[in-house]
Write a structure and sequence with these properties.
- 10% of the residues lie in helices and 42% in strands.
- Strands 6-5-4-7-8 form a five-stranded antiparallel β-sheet. Strands 2-1-3 form a three-stranded antiparallel β-sheet.
- The chain is mainly beta.
- The protein is globular.
- The chain has a domain at 53-132: OB fold (Dihydrolipoamide Acetyltransferase, E2P) (Beta Barrel).
- The chain has one helix at 3-16, and strands spanning 18-22, 28-29, 47-51, 55-64, 77-84, 89-94, 107-117, 124-132.
- The structure holds zinc ion (ZN).
- Zinc ion is lined by residues 22, 24-25, 27, 36, 38-39, 41.
Length: 134
């Protein structure tokens, strides 16, 4: 498998909140791996896909001012490490708030939003971003 398709596969899972659960030890993780990070057994054929609830907590955050061209229209935006209720930590945008509203421990949940727009083709991709729990 090429590097590009691996990255795309991970991106696809990330934006759809699809993770994996080891059928040996029950650990949920993300992104997909060949070896379970907990019990270190081969996961091939021994993991099931799960859809995460989208509930989580901010463990780290940063304000991004400089982004790849496809994300330029969104700067500055808040990028956070979010620990999902199921355990895995993912990187995602937090939207609909001021940067000052986000702190370590802030509870968030996933919402389905536009991820980016290709400037030339006009193609819009959708996926999950996070908002602060009200
Ligand atoms: Zn395991």
């Amino acid at each position: 498998m090429t590097e590009l398709s691996r990255i795309w596969r991970e991106t696809e899972y990330r934006y759809n909140l699809i993770g994996f659960k080891c059928m040996n030890c029950g650990t949920s993780y993300f992104p997909p791996r060949d070896i379970c990070p907990k019990c270190h057994r081969e996961s091939i054929g021994k993991m099931e896909k799960i859809k995460f609830s989208g509930d989580g907590e901010v463990i780290s955050h940063t304000l991004v001012h400089d982004a790849a061209p496809a994300f330029k229209r969104q700067v500055p935006y808040i990028l956070a490490l979010i620990k999902l209720k199921e355990g895995p930590v993912i990187t995602a945008q937090i939207v609909d708030c001021d940067p000052g509203d986000v702190d370590i421990g802030t509870k968030v949940h996933a919402v389905f939003r536009k991820i980016r727009q290709d400037g030339d083709s006009g193609i819009i991709e959708y996926g999950y971003k996070f908002v602060i729990n009200s």
